[in-house]
């Protein structure tokens, strides 16, 4: 039984280790212990409701057993761009025409933009490599839909995710080399680290304010626009299966695409259902079967979600074993949410 829970102060060492492992390009997890400590403190304060909803950043961890260590994490930023300017490139076009010469040209462009400010962001998704099995990545990512469905008033109706852009095996970004490096005179890894550390002032100071004509970039930089890192392709596919689509914005450093979906139209939010707990004894099913379902409580500060291979529903009630109820920290009659992991799977009757 896989468990998702809010990150705790005792998880600091695990958080630092995962940030170190995540590598170049995962901007939300820079290899910076002091920053990770501040990031954890902010998440803990968010779950304790010591911050306003607009200031909050929620981080969840996944563990394979009730007493096991955290092996991955994911996050929800309630509102991006609230405390620091949020930059993207907006993909656009410039139309040029000359009747005298009989010419009509559409030139793709990049416009520096703050248009995504105020949106809710799904981010900080990372799963340690030995645990990329048994649908753990899908479970970790989709657990956030249960939280969004339970507390939609805390978030924007506009939900986005920024995907890691393409870089080669050595961590080199062709988009950065073809554009950003010419204005910042630093390596991609250094710019990525500064951005992850929250130091974005240099972007406004050095980035050109006028549209960038894409055909003027090297071919490999053009090809990288809206492309994702090979390791990110499964995450993009999962989001697209839940209704997210590329929205015409890309990251200013690696040109990774942003995807977007209205909160109430997210597949996992739509197919989640609010029921009530009935605690009964059930015989264990085959534990070798991959999990098909996720069940969560609706306790904000003590949010918990677990996986299950089968569910047993009786009208408005969902039957749980005493062990499941204990892990979810609920009693008989408490509200719970259930969601099929795969979008195409119907719920059991």
Protein described:
The longest helix is centred in the N-terminal third of the chain and has 15 residues, at 33-47. The protein is an alpha+beta fold and 349 residues long. Among the domains are: 84-115 and 164-237 and 251-258, no CATH class; 273-340, Barwin-like endoglucanases (Beta Barrel). The chain is elongated. It has a 16-stranded mixed beta sheet, sandwiched between helices. It contains 10 helices and 16 strands. It has helices at 12-22, 33-47, 136-150, 174-184, 188-196, 201-206, 219-224, 233-241, 267-271, 322-328; strands at residues 3-6, 57-63, 72-77, 88-98, 103-113, 120-127, 158-162, 212-213, 245-250, 257-262, 273-279, 293-297, 305-308, 312-314, 317-320, 335-340.
In helices, the fraction of residues equals 25-40%
Strand-residue fraction?
Answer: 25-35%
Strand order of the largest sheet: 8-5-4-9-10-7-6-3-2-1-13-12-16-11-15-14
What is the residue-averaged pLDDT?
Answer: 89
Q: What is the number of helical segments per DSSP (H or I, 4+ residues)?
A: 10
Please report the distance between the alpha carbons of the first and last residues: 22 Å
- Biggest pleated-sheet summary: 16 strands, mixed
- How many β-strand stretches? 16
What is the string of helix and strand elements? EHHEEEEEHEHHHEHHEEHEEEEEHE
Structural class computed from helices and strand pairing: alpha+beta
Radius of gyration: 22 Å
Which overall shape is indicated by the principal axes computed on the Cα atoms? Answer: elongated
């Amino acid at each position: 039984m896989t468990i998702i829970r809010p990150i705790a102060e005792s998880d600091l060492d695990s958080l630092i280790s995962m940030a170190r492992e995540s590598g170049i390009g995962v901007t939300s997890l820079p290899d910076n212990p002091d920053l990770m400590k501040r990031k954890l403190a902010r998440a803990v304060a968010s779950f304790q409701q010591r911050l306003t909803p607009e200031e909050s950043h929620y981080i969840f961890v996944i563990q394979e057993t009730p007493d096991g260590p955290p092996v991955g994490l994911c996050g929800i930023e309630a509102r991006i761009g609230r405390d620091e300017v949020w930059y993207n490139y907006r993909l656009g076009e410039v139309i040029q025409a000359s009747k005298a010469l009989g010419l009509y040209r559409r030139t793709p462009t990049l416009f520096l933009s703050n248009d995504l400010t105020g949106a809710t962001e799904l981010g900080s998704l990372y799963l340690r490599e030995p645990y990329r099995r048994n649908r753990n990545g899908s479970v970790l990512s989709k657990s956030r839909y249960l939280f969004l469905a339970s507390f939609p008033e805390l978030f924007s109706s506009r939900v986005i995710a920024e995907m890691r852009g393409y870089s080669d095996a050595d961590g080199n970004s062709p988009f950065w080399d073809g554009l950003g490096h010419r204005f910042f005179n630093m390596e991609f890894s250094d710019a990525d680290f500064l951005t992850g550390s929250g130091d974005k002032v240099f972007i406004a100071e050095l980035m050109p304010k006028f549209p960038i004509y894409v055909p003027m970039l090297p071919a490999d930089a053009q090809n990288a626009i809206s492309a994702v890192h090979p390791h990110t392709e499964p995450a993009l596919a999962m989001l697209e299966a839940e209704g997210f689509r590329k929205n015409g914005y890309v990251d200013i450093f690696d040109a990774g695409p942003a995807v977007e979906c209205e909160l109430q139209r997210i597949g996992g939010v739509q197919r989640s259902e609010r029921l009530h707990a009935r605690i009964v004894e059930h015989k264990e099913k085959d534990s070798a079967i991959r999990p098909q379902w996720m069940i969560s409580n609706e306790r904000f500060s003590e949010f918990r979600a677990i996986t299950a291979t089968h569910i047993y529903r009786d009208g408005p009630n969902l039957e749980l074993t005493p062990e499941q109820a204990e892990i979810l920290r609920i009693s008989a009659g408490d509200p719970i949410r259930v969601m099929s992991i795969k979008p195409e799977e119907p719920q059991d009757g």
